[in-house]
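Translate structure to sequence.
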């Protein structure tokens, strides 16, 4: 009985420890800053947030700052699908007293009998800025803090001709949303063999950037093979992004009002230090292959008649810089006629580099019967993993020609020809004198060609007058022809959107591209450089109706919303018909 009671007490104790540990793991108490970089004349909002109710809150001393507001306490307690969500925060508004790197100290609070503290946070204070704490300045600061473009290299010190992958990722926090992403500067790979991997669809994933959780999309993936040694620079990638930043205002329904601000972000230059291949141990037959390969020489047959032919295939397969080196050349005796090889490549490229095979196929035709040896072939490559050279050898092969003519005996040398002295009349057949006779030609004036050339301009002018009168008498046909031409132009721009109507994301991406391409052609401007208000103003100046312009702007906004913030209800077919009608009306009005 005592033993059972002891076991029960031990189980209850362990259960209490597990519950207490679980509670400890669930408690969150942290410091949130409105920005980590600000001017000396700007304000900073500091929020201490916890997910459990606590007492005896003690703020830090805020050394180097003046407290201009706070503490403002906020409590949120919600139930969603039976799950409780609790949040409590204390907010302060501070102004820096000096420039430099200042520290927001640790705050503490007591939750369920335990004292929790926050981690200190660093803030960089710069010189005074123009228009401090304006809505646009605050929006830019929030965008800078929550939006980052990063270039990730698989290796920074590769060997010459070793594969390197560079992946560009666009990180953005859940506090903002991004749209209208366009490349303004593309990286240049002058000293590399490069291959950009296709990204059929941007997928939002969760990741970590500098220890904080972010959403991100992979914007570009490129495989590089350096063709030079030393310090190589990869030029930066620059993107223009439209960022929706939350403000402190709310609409009539209590929803947060967002402010749109354009941002230009860059991943910065990246530097590779490419190492040369070692000279020690380099084989004499090395032609620049770097990777991990297999080598083989195969014959479709080795015994044949002189009237037949055989094929020899020299093949290299594996992973590495396939196609960037020369294959070994097959050598054969003079009695075997070897044709120029047919080169074949079966290469696929992914994030690990090129993989597949390359081969040369030789056609060999024997001339006489006999046994002819083909010497062994060797192939060498450098393995960057083992950092050493590897050599493969295909064995020698004997070709047996068992039927055909015998090799001819050596022919006697030909006797030299005697030099022939030409006679004196050797070149008499060439005429040295001419006898010109006058040509009888009729005069140009008064000829049929003369009267044709004189009357042709008048006939052409008369034809143009008759054609113009005929067109003036058919205004209705002209209007119908313009209508058909506008419809054809609209269908041309919207063809790709119609083909992608089965999938919302692809459809609205194609529809957005079609509308922008149409406006680019009509307005003769880059639509990415102007906003919708400027676009509407330009269309109005060109004579477009206000209702048509509003319909176009509404379609563009719906495309942006469907691409970057998908909604549950979408009607691609209706939007396609609306876009077709809008483009037709715009073409008539413009």
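Result:
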């Amino acid at each position: 009985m005592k033993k059972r009671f002891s076991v029960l007490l031990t189980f209850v104790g362990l259960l209490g420890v597990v519950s207490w540990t679980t509670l400890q793991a669930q408690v969150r108490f942290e410091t949130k800053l409105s920005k980590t970089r600000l001017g000396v004349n700007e304000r900073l909002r500091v929020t201490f947030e916890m997910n459990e109710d606590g007492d005896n809150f003690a703020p830090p001393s805020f050394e180097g700052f003046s407290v201009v507001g706070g503490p403002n306490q906020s409590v949120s307690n919600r139930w969603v699908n039976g799950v409780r969500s609790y949040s409590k925060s204390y907010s302060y508004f501070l102004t820096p007293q000096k420039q430099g790197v200042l520290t927001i100290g640790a705050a503490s609070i007591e939750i369920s009998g335990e004292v929790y503290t926050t981690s200190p946070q660093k803030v960089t204070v710069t010189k005074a800025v123009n228009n401090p704490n304006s809505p646009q300045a605050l929006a830019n600061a929030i965008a800078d803090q929550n939006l980052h473009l990063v270039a990730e290299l698989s290796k920074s010190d590769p060997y010459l001709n070793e594969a390197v992958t560079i992946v560009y990722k666009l990180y953005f926090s859940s506090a903002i949303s991004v749209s209208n992403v366009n490349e303004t500067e593309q990286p240049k790979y002058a000293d590399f063999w490069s291959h950009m991997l296709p990204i059929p669809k941007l997928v939002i994933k969760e990741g970590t950037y500098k220890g904080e959780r972010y959403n991100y999309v992979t914007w570009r993936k490129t495989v590089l093979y350096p063709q030079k040694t030393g310090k190589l620079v990869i030029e930066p990638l620059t993107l223009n992004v439209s960022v929706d930043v939350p403000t402190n205002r709310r609409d009539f329904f209590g929803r947060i009002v967002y402010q749109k601000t354009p941002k230009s972000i860059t991943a910065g230059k990246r530097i590779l230090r490419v190492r040369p291949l070692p000279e020690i141990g380099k084989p004499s037959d090395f032609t620049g292959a770097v990777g991990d390969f297999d080598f083989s020489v195969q014959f479709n047959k080795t015994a044949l008649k002189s009237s037949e032919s055989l094929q020899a295939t020299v093949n290299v397969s594996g992973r590495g810089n396939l196609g960037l080196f020369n294959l070994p050349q097959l050598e054969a005796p003079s009695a075997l006629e070897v044709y120029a090889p047919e080169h074949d490549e079966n290469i696929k490229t992914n994030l690990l580099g090129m993989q597949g095979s390359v081969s040369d196929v030789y056609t060999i035709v024997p001339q006489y019967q006999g046994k002819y040896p083909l010497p062994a072939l060797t192939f060498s490559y450098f393995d960057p993993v083992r950092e050493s050279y590897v050599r493969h050898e295909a064995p020698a092969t004997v070709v047996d020609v068992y039927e055909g003519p015998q090799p001819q005996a050596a022919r006697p040398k030909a006797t030299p020809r005697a030099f022939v002295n030409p006679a004196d009349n050797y070149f008499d057949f060439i005429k040295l004198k001419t006898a010109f006779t006058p040509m009888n030609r009729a005069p140009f004036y008064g000829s049929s060609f003369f009267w044709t050339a004189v009357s042709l301009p008048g006939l052409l002018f008369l034809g143009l007058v008759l054609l113009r009168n005929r067109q003036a008498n058919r205004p209705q046909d002209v209007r119908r022809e313009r209508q058909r031409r506008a419809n054809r132009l609209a269908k041309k721009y919207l063809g790709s959107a119609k083909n992608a109507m089965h999938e919302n994301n692809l459809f609205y991406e194609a529809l957005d591209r079609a509308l922008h391409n149409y406006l680019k052609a009509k307005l003769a401007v880059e639509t990415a450089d102007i906003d919708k208000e400027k676009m509407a103003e330009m269309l109005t100046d060109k004579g477009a109706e206000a209702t048509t312009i509003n319909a176009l702007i509404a379609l563009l906004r719906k495309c942006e919303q469907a691409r970057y913030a998908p909604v549950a209800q979408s009607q691609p077919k209706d939007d396609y018909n609306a876009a077709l009608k809008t483009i037709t009306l715009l073409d008539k009005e413009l």
